[in-house]
């Protein structure tokens, strides 16, 4: 069965509403690489609309942005049209259309949980140069305040299986001789209620509801009552999981 994307119908919402990622994350990747991102070749898997790809390019990286969804890669290309350092490529992370040992850095922002690790990990290691770094990360929305918990309860009621497990295979050390390191970066952004709703509507678990528009309309009513000035603060903990391949030889 051919792979397909759950995000074909939400590319515009994704581009409009999704948050980017904190600068400390990219500082950490540079520290792991023992070099600046400037001039590095980064392969961004499941690049979506290019949020992380453009942040990598802003650090000076040359980015191959690989994305399965046709509508998402079209949005990525449109939003990155003025960046010659971002090359959109439609394709799968389980069959990366690049030569061996070509990348200094392979990334997967908000996407690795969609990728079969049994197929994806060998491909990541194939395209990484010796001493290269693979980093997967997610913006986890914090839900501790009253309004955050109330929204989480409504999401649970609408789609109880929405929570995803994030991580890398536990046997990376045993199978490939790689040690996993993890980092967490807390940050927040002030947005309009409408932008928050675009972010929420771009989530696959909302898009797949029988009537996602009705769910968002209810959220809009409740949030405008809770935030009459039309703005709210979204709070995140960005979780990074990373590995570095041996510098003297490629991982087996």
What does this structure look like?
With 252 residues, the chain is an alpha/beta fold. It has a domain at 11-141 and 163-190 and 233-244: Vaccinia Virus protein VP39 (Rossmann fold, 3-Layer(aba) Sandwich), CATH 3.40.50. 37% of the residues lie in helices and 25% in strands. The chain is built from ten helices and seven strands. The chain has helices spanning 11-17, 23-33, 51-58, 70-79, 117-127, 146-158, 172-176, 193-201, 204-207, 212-226, and strands at 41-45, 62-67, 86-90, 103-109, 128-141, 181-192, 231-244. The protein has a seven-stranded mixed sheet. α1 (11-17) crosses α8 (193-201) and α8 (193-201) packs antiparallel against α10. The longest helix is centred in the last third of the chain and has 15 residues, at 212-226. The two termini are 29 Å apart.
């Amino acid at each position: 069965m051919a792979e397909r994307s759950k995000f074909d119908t939400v590319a515009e919402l994704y581009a409009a509403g999704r948050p980017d990622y904190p600068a400390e994350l990219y500082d950490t990747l540079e520290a792991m690489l023992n070099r600046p991102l400037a001039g590095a070749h980064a392969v961004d898997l499941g690049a979506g609309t290019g949020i992380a790809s453009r942040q990598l390019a802003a650090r000076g990286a040359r980015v191959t942005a690989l994305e399965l969804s046709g509508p998402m890669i079209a949005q990525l290309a449109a939003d990155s049209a003025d960046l010659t350092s971002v090359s959109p490529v439609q394709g799968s992370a389980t069959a990366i259309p690049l030569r061996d040992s070509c990348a200094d850095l392979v990334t997967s922002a908000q996407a690795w949980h969609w990728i079969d690790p049994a197929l994806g990990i060998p491909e990541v290691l194939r395209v990484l140069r010796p001493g290269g770094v693979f980093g997967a990360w997610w913006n986890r929305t914090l839900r501790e305040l009253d309004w955050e918990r109330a929204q989480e309860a409504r999401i649970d009621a609408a789609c109880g299986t929405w929570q995803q497990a994030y991580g890398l295979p536990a046997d990376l050390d045993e199978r490939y001789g790689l040690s996993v390191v993890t980092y967490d970066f807390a940050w927040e952004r002030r947005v309009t209620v409408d932008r928050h709703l675009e972010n929420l509507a771009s989530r696959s678990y909302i898009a797949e509801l029988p009537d996602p528009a009705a769910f968002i309309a209810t959220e809009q009513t409740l949030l405008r009552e809770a935030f009459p000035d039309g703005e709210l603060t979204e709070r995140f903990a960005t979780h990074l999981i990373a590995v570095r391949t041996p510098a003297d030889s490629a991982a087996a």
